[in-house]
């Protein structure tokens, strides 16, 4: 396993927030080699492409990519292939990152930042594992055609294909079961098996894979019910695994339970634990360069990187505990600030986390 980390700050607040995560990693004195490169709009300006070859090559030979964010309004008029966001899609595709892990954690100190009642969400700690490269988003055939069956024969219709290959479901199942083993050993698989063939197939495979993980309790839930339970009693969940479409929706819903976009990390993994780690939020051009952005989502993404790509659970927990401690001490960036706490900027928040380590 390589100890190389590709550091790709990108656009907007990317530079400021990634800098803090890099400082935190440095403070832990780990055996990691960090190499920086340009990505996103900034790479387009410099090299004419949001994911230049040297950046992609660096990512490919690295065990992990620490990513900031990409995008800015000024690139909105570019042809799609040159838009900054294409860099993430290109990295996912080239590294085969099929598993998207998004924790939704609400530190008790931030319970009143959520839109839900504090008792419903305080201490919330769930992990959504979303399949990222299959499902109806990529299934073919797709397009527009003249309907030849059903109630609207002869009419124009739009159509997509929901599909999952057996090996595709198996590999995401293994990621989810292994994540569950590191946590409360509870895995809920979300599908729509009462209506969809793809979902019944998914469910059967989950049950089959579960035989290899007798220590993990597997349950199943329909997506409509899961969407409901996630706001009614989110703490009932620990790890949730689901397909691309349902996962897209559920992971956004889960992130809102915490009410603080600046706090949410994410990981995208392949079968060799090579991964891309980034905050769930975007490049926030409205606050870029002002030392206002919350770096904690990126710092927590670095913790996920140590856990999933480098197998260093201890260092990951050290970072997470340090984040809990700075919140306990009352430090807040503007996005999570409330009266009676200590308002700090991006770099001061980094200082506080390093001090807490
Ligand atoms: P955004 O997440 O960048 O910002 C939404 C709101 O949250 C803004 O008011 C912003 O100031 C605030 N915010 C975001 N992160 C924050 C942080 N760390 N601390 C404090 N406040 C924070 O989403 P938006 O505005 O829709 O998109 C801006 C740009 O980011 C667009 O170009 C979009 O395409 C791109 N984007 C990139 C993503 C990525 O790189 N993975 C993901 C989502 C959006
Ligand atoms: Mg989404």
From TrEMBL:
Pathway(s) per entry: Amino-acid biosynthesis; L-leucine biosynthesis; L-leucine from 3-methyl-2-oxobutanoate: step 3/4
Subcellular localization(s) per the UniProt record: Cytoplasm
Sites annotated Important for catalysis: 137, 192
Domain Isopropylmalate dehydrogenase-like: 4-353
Highest taxon of source: Bacteria
Enzyme class label: oxidoreductase
Residues reported to bind substrate: 92, 102, 130, 224
Entry keywords, A to Z: Amino-acid biosynthesis, Branched-chain amino acid biosynthesis, Cytoplasm, Leucine biosynthesis, Magnesium, Manganese, Metal-binding, NAD, Oxidoreductase
Entries under Gene3D superfamilies matching the protein: Isopropylmalate Dehydrogenase
Annotated residues for binding of Mg(2+): 224, 248, 252
Binding site for NAD(+): 282-294
Cofactors required: Mn(2+); Mg(2+)
Catalytically driven reaction(s): (2R,3S)-3-isopropylmalate + NAD(+) = 4-methyl-2-oxopentanoate + CO2 + NADH
Matches recorded under NCBIfam families: leuB
Subunit-structure text: Homodimer.
Its biological purpose: Catalyzes the oxidation of 3-carboxy-2-hydroxy-4-methylpentanoate (3-isopropylmalate) to 3-carboxy-4-methyl-2-oxopentanoate. The product decarboxylates to 4-methyl-2 oxopentanoate.
Family statement drawn from the similarity comment of this UniProt entry: Belongs to the isocitrate and isopropylmalate dehydrogenases family. LeuB type 1 subfamily.
Protein name according to UniProt: 3-isopropylmalate dehydrogenase
